[in-house]
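Question thread 4412

I'm putting together a teaching handout and wanted feedback from people who do this every day. The idea is simple: show students a protein as raw sequence, then show them the structure tokens that encode its fold, then repeat with a second protein so they can compare. Below is the first pair exactly as I plan to print it.
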Amino acid sequence: MATPPSVRLHHPPSSCRRLPAPTNHQFHAARCRRRRLPPGAAAPPLRLRATGAAAQPFDSNGSLPRAAEVGEREDQQQPPPRLKIAVVGFGNYGQFLARTLVAQGHTVLAHSRSDYSAAAAALGARFFPDPHDLCECHPDVVLLATSILSAEPVVRSLPVHRLRRDTLFADVLSVKEFPKNLLLGALPEEFDIICTHPMFGPESARDGWAGLPFVFDRVRVGDCPARRARAEAFLGVFAREGCRMVEMSCAEHDAHAAGTQFLTHTVGRMLAMLELRPTPISTRGYETLLRLVDNTCSDSFDLYNGLFMYNKNSTELLHRLEWAMDAVKKKLFDGLHDVLRKQLFDVEGSPADPAEVLVVGGDLDTHDDGDDRDAVDGDESGSEGNN
């Protein structure tokens, strides 16, 4: 009786049949042939490698690490996320930032009113003369790096409707309350906003950003893991360079910046008006003043003007600076007045009694003759009375 097809046994073809296991001698010979070892040479011992959780090292107690520790190590080994960052305002400072962004592996898109296509290509960025083309590339972050004075017209000229509805906007302006209010008023509510101020520039950071302060304020970041991760990835650009990360409100920043940045620029520009020059006997303090002039006057006057116009604390600081100068002058001139009085009136041989000092308009007669008329009429009246 024939076997039904459902239970019929089929032998695999000869090419798929399992071959007998090689002997130890055959296996050793094969390893020697593959590594081209000389005949009779001993093969190195086998090394077993594990993957996954089994590959984790044992701790001091001989047990596997906990799952949390394994996850932490895996997170540390993951590279930071790459962002597509649009730098709006590709002047000197925008190019300064783009150089580091490209070096970290981020994609940089550039836009400016002037044609910086050659500079962008040299840095590894892509330049867009038309802001519509820039926004249609859907960058993750739009970084505003314009001057303070041109920030508002530039922001309002951007076709933000061509961006994704959850785009992150950030700025690097030297004042913070002004761009915060500008971005909150000009952008849709779905957009994220982070106001930042790198407290350094191409001159002060020519040797690197390590240790330099970076101020930031998470003005508006959506409560979504992806949006929070993007915000942290953007801030991580500066943290990876070793910046000293300082989180504070925009109002607090402007209060501090008036005393640090605006005052520094004001003193530097005042000293520049004196046309100071190096001398053969320059002290270190004087050389510091010369460097201050170079650092502050290398920036445009628009920057200095923006520090004054868009920080409400700057006007008060100017008044305090004038008061301080007047107070110093008063102290100097009061001391000079005391010296002059001593030179004029404290000479040797001068009468000790102030009543005996010569008075303008005549002599003061201090002798009492019992006749008030003589004291008033003088010598001629007295002579007539004696006659």
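The second pair follows. I'd like the answer to focus on this one:
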Amino acid sequence: MGALDEGHFHEELENGVKLDCIKLDCEEEPITTAIEDAVKVLLQGLGEDVNREGLRKTPLRVAKAFREGTKGYRQKVKDIVQGALFPEAGIDNGVGHAGGAGGLVVVRDIDLFSYCESCLLPFQVKCHVGYVPSGQRVVGLSKLSRVTDVFAKRLQEPKRLANEVCAALQQGIQPAGVAIVLQCLHIHSPDLEGSFLDSNHQAWVKTLVCSGSGVFENESDYLWGDFFNLLKFRGINVDKTFMRHSSDQSWCPSQSSSGAKTSAVIESINQGMVTAVASIIRSLGEDPLRKELIGTPGRFVKWLLNFQQTNLEMNLTPLNPDVEISDKEKQMQSELNLSFWSQCEHHLLPFHGVVHIGYFGFEGLTSIGKSLLQSIVHFYGFKLQVQERLTRQIAETVSSLLGRDVIVVVEANHTCMVSRGIEKFGSSTATIAALGRYSTDPVARERFLQGIPKTSTSEV
């Protein structure tokens, strides 16, 4: 569970450019243009018109998001740590440990995001850093967060991210030891067919990884026990036996799919799109031929093709269209927590959540079943979308099927809220569309809204 060797990071600490290069200079502009051109190829491969309203600036927005999300390649740890080490004598009598004299220092709950090197989808990280000062000096605590962000803002996988942060801190501040614990959440890459068949599809894949250097290289050292106990205050329970197996298998869902089926799909997809993704990876400063990245372009295109523009049609017949039912005979009914997945057309980043549908029907109408409404949700979800349009489309379609009195609430997590510089972790978005009686009757609207169960669309 040790970190990568220090020699590997000596060059890492010396190379790179200055931090906070937010504006692209003349040398970087061609890189952004290259990514924009590649994104246009991807949009065309999805059957989209790159000049339609909503997509015109998408290539530039995607390029900016990728550049922001991988800016760690252009940063160096030395710039962060240098000048941030402060003298702290600690306990003078030599009994016990504190401050610069060997006491454990922990920074918990550092929220990060990174791009998965296996599929290019963003994943969320909650990072906990512990270190034991040496040489009677301590590092500014904010610097620990900034160092972790340097390595998170690269194409990554959890175990390597933990190892790289650990080794960089060990090399940069020369403590007695460093401990890293990462809680990672990866969106669970559903496919169109699988989601239609499985309404209980899990939204997230979770993993927890550890890395240690110096005094933390010994898994049984009491300092690990102190570290884990301090994490328990935050509701984090780590079994020590877990540390020995935390990197045994790939965690990315795109690599855990059926091997033969996935390979066949990737081989049959648009090779121009695959080439375009490879060029994006190259523009970001990575080598698309690196072992871990060879299959990444195909896996990313496979994800995108879930949202391609298709000619699918829904043949929905209104229920009992010739029967006139008075409002008094109608009953309020609802279907709650229908899952959905979609892809933001502004940033080509996934968003997902739940849909709640309310309507007035007559006795026996409940036979419509949850599956049909779930199919309507998926039909509009698996497209390049914006949440406001998705909400309206679902409401209008359900209204045409069940009658005019319909209300739809969509609750969603947008990965673009954390992975393009905004970094609003835990935020979610809710939208409402109300038709017919629900648009004019505040009592009915309030009754439906109060019936929505308290849920959290965020897992971090």
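Top answer:
Good format. For the second protein you could add a caption like this: The radius of gyration is 26 Å. The chain has two domains: 6-305, 327-450.
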